[in-house]
Amino acid sequence: MDINGQTSLIGIVGHPLTYTISPQMHNAAAEALGLNLCYVPLVVEAGDLEAAVNGLKALNFKGVNVTMPHKETIIPLLDGLDDGVRAIGAVNTVRIEAGKATGYNTDARGFITALGEAGFDAAGTKAVVVGAGGAARAAVLALAEAGAEISILNRTPERSRALAGEMKERFPNFRIKILEFGAELADKFVDAKLIVNATPVGMKDSKDETPIPTALLDSGQFVFDLIYEPDETLLMREASARGAVAIGGLSMLIHQAAASFEIWTGVQPPIDLMRAAAVKALRPGR
Ligand code: NAP
C-alpha cells in the first residue's frame, strides 16, 4: 500500500478491536481496485466517542465502521440516519461528507445477499429467527422486506415481543409470531423452511452448545448460523447430519463489509478477494 498526501482514510471505531478482520478485507479491496485509501483500527473507549466523532470530521475521514460498544450510543452523535438504522436501532457504518456524518446499518443487506448467494429465496417462506438482539433485528428486517413470515424465538420473550411490535408497526401486513422455549415448540418448527441463529450460542466459548434442540431440525430446512467463528458450529453440523442445508455467517460478514465499502467509495468491491482476505485473517494457514 502506497500511502501519500492524497490517501483517504477510513477506519473502524470500537473497543476492544483485537478480533476485527475489517482492515484486512477493506485494504485488500482498495488495493485491488487501485483506490488510494487506507482503512485503520481506531480504538475508542466509551467516554471518548463524541470527541472521536468530531475528530473523524476534523481529520477528513471518509467514514468508519462502528462496532461494540458504540453501535447504539453513536446514534445521537450523528447528523443524519439512514432508514435501516431506525429499524435496526444500531449503526455499523458512518459516511462523512462535507463535515456531516450519516449513520447506516449494512447488516440486513449483508444477511439477505448471503442468503441469496447460498441459493435461498426468502419470499413467501416461513422462517424462525432465534435471538432478538442486533443481528436478529437485521435478519428480521431483511426477511420482512423480502416477504417472509417470521417467528421469533428468544431466551427473553419480552425482547422478542418488543421486536415483533416494532416490525409490525413498520410493516402492517407482516406476519410475525413469538415462540417460546417449551413443549409445543416442535409443532411450530414443522413448517419452517429457514432457521436463523442470531445468538452467540455456538461460538468459541460455547462451541459444544446449540441454540435449539436437534430434534427440531429436518431435511427440508435451510439453517443459517450467523456465527462466523468457528466456521462450522454444532448447530450446522447437526443440521447437516439431519439432511438440512447449513451455512455459517462468514458470507454475511463479507457482504455487510462490501455494502459499507460501496457507501464510502461508490464502487462495488471484489467479493472473492474480500472473502480470501477474511479467510486468511480468520484462519491463517488454510
Ligand atoms: P446481541 O445484540 O448481544 O444479541 C444476542 C442475542 O442472543 C439476544 O437475543 C440474547 O438473548 C441471545 N443470547 C445470548 N446468549 C444466549 C444464551 N446463552 N442462550 C440463549 N440466547 C442467548 O448480539 P448480536 O450482535 O445480535 O450478535 C449475535 C450473534 O450474531 C453473534 O454470534 C455475532 O457474532 C453474530 N453476528 C454475525 C454477523 C455476521 O455478519 N455474520 C453480524 C452481526 C452479528 P436475550 O435477549 O435473552 O439476552
Offer a quick outline of the entry:
With 286 residues, the chain is α/β, with parallel strands linked by helices. It is built from 10 helices and 12 strands. Helix 1 links the parallel strand 1 and strand 2.
Describe this structure in words.
With 286 residues, the protein is an alpha/beta fold. Helix content is 37%, strand content 19%. The strands form two sheets. The protein has a six-stranded mixed sheet, sandwiched between helices. The chain has a six-stranded parallel sheet with strand order 9-8-7-10-11-12, sandwiched between helices. Strand 5 and strand 6 form a beta hairpin. The protein is globular. It binds NADP nicotinamide-adenine-dinucleotide phosphate (NAP).
Which tags fit this structure?
about 20% strand; single chain; binds NADP nicotinamide-adenine-dinucleotide phosphate; about 290 residues; 6-stranded mixed beta sheet; globular; 6-stranded parallel beta sheet; alpha/beta
Strand content: 15-25%
Bound compounds, please?
A: NADP nicotinamide-adenine-dinucleotide phosphate
**Structural class of the secondary elements?**
alpha/beta
Helix content: 25-40%
Mean pLDDT: 95
* Helix/strand order, N-terminal first: EHEHEEHEEHEHEHEHEEHEHH
Question: How would you write the strand order of the largest sheet?
Answer: 2-1-3-5-6-4
Low-pLDDT residue intervals, each spanning 5 or more residues = none
CA-atom Rg in angstroms:
19 Å
User: Largest sheet at a glance?
Assistant: 6 strands, mixed
What would you call the shape? globular
Say how many strands there are. Answer: 12
Determine the N-to-C terminus distance.
24 Å
DSSP helical segment count: 10
